[in-house]
From TrEMBL:
Name by which UniProt lists this protein: Acyl-CoA dehydrogenase family protein
Domain Acyl-CoA dehydrogenase/oxidase C-terminal: 233-399
Domain Acyl-CoA oxidase/dehydrogenase middle: 127-220
Family: Belongs to the acyl-CoA dehydrogenase family.
Length: 402
């Protein structure tokens, strides 16, 4: 594996850097820099998506015929890396990086023609309806019912931990259309307008105070059968396909390197403490190793080889190292990290029952105020997109034959 970029790759990197320099405003960089989770400020994210769409780079991983870019795998990695290093706000993954790929693979011509252009522009903004109060990591145990009635499916039940349900105008859901021998059977993948009669959204307050997650209730919601993606009772096939993009959609290495570098600068005084310095050095080494693993995976795919359970491996390493870095940041923040100061950040949603001080005074430096918010948000990293325990089971089965 050659770790040096080719002249073509270096020219592409320079092109991306010029674009980022010219289009990332201070406000957008601030939204990226002060995001407290994988979901940045919604308005900033949508503004950046519109800028990328004008350039033709909003969905580079899509097939070219639907608006994607004819990039090599290396160029995709370079684009993600340079965007992270420049502080660009992330785009919501629900539409562009997740359900769009399922629509491309399983959708009808009518579904592709309607949804794909509107996902690119942001006119259609999806949230994800998978987890239920009694069906999280064991997703196949879901019970939200969808009963056939003429040309419609009538949906009753609820979904939980639904990110940006208050902003979304569509939700992609897994629903139970029948009960068969295996619980993975009888599940259907359904696209539902959020303004349908019978839908109620109830925000959930996270430990950081943000209202990003929600519970969504469905009371006799009628959805046309034309909104089924794939086949009725075969939604598990669509969901498994989509999970490949949810778990392996972006590079962890650059983000973790940026986090570690920022912490080294912010907590420079603590680097004289051998114990803290050793912990931070270990995290920085692990971030560099993770990037090499991503390079190896990228190399294998580009040469047509099966990377194996790489998405599960990278998901475990990436999320747990991110949690480690947020722990170190909270440790470095010291007593000032105990204050609740969400006005110091740009969270992915409104903050419940909180009014910032009139003068926006911060106890300590901004990074110290942001540290606990990121710490609390990042506790979910080892749970979302399939818990890390599930990922270890996948590795044990696929690699060790257990």
């Amino acid at each position: 594996m050659d770790l040096d970029w080719s002249p073509t790759d270096l020219a592409f990197r320079d092109e991306v850097r010029r674009f980022l320099d010219e289009n990332l405003t201070p406000e957008l960089r601030r939204a990226g820099r002060l995001a407290t989770s994988v979901y940045p400020d919604h308005e900033a994210s949508m503004t950046w998506q519109r800028i990328l769409h004008e350039r033709g780079w909003a969905a580079p991983a899509w097939p070219v015929e639907y608006g994607g870019c004819d990039w090599s795998l290396t160029q995709h990695y370079i684009f993600d890396r340079e965007s992270t290093l420049a502080g660009a706000p992330a785009l919501s993954p629900m539409g562009i990086r997740m359900v769009a790929h399922a629509i491309i693979a399983f959708g009808t011509a009518e579904q592709k023609a309607y949804f794909l252009p509107r996902i690119l522009t942001g006119e259609v903004f999806f949230c994800q309806g998978y987890s239920e109060p009694e069906a999280g990591s064991d997703l196949a145990s879901l019970t939200m019912a969808a009963v056939a009635d003429g040309d419609d499916l009538v949906c009753t039940g609820s979904k939980i931990w639904t990110t940006h349900a208050t902003e979304a105008n569509w939700i992609f859901c897994l629903v139970r259309t029948s009960r068969l021998e295996r619980k993975q059977q009888g599940i259907t993948f359904l696209l539902i307008p959020m303004d349908s009669p019978g839908i109620q959204v109830r925000p959930l307050v996270m430990t950081s105070g943000e209202q990003v997650q929600n519970q969504v209730f469905f009371d006799q919601v009628r959805v046309p059968k034309a909104n089924v993606l794939g086949r009725v009772d075969d939604g598990w096939t669509v969901a498994k396909y989509l999970l490949n993009f949810e778990r392996g959609g972006a590079a962890y290495g650059p983000t973790l390197q940026v986090m570690a570098e920022a912490l080294a600068n912010q907590a420079a005084a603590l680097l004289d403490d051998p114990a803290f310095a050793a912990k931070l050095a270990d995290a920085r080494i692990r971030a560099d190793v993770l990037e090499i693993l991503e390079y190896r995976t990228m190399s294998a795919i580009s040469h047509g080889r099966d990377p194996g359970p790489a998405a599960s491996t990278l998901k475990i390493l990436g999320t747990e190292l991110s949690q480690r870095l947020t722990e170190l940041a909270l440790e470095a923040a010291g007593p000032r990290g105990r204050a609740y100061q969400p006005h110091a950040a740009m969270p992915g949603g409104p903050v419940a029952d909180y009014l910032p001080p009139a003068d926006c005074y911060l106890a300590g430096e901004q990074w110290q105020a942001v540290a606990p918010l990121r710490y609390f948000n990042d506790r979910a990293g080892s749970i979302y997109a399939g818990s890390n325990e599930i990922q270890r089971n996948i590795i044990a089965k696929a690699t060790l034959g257990l």
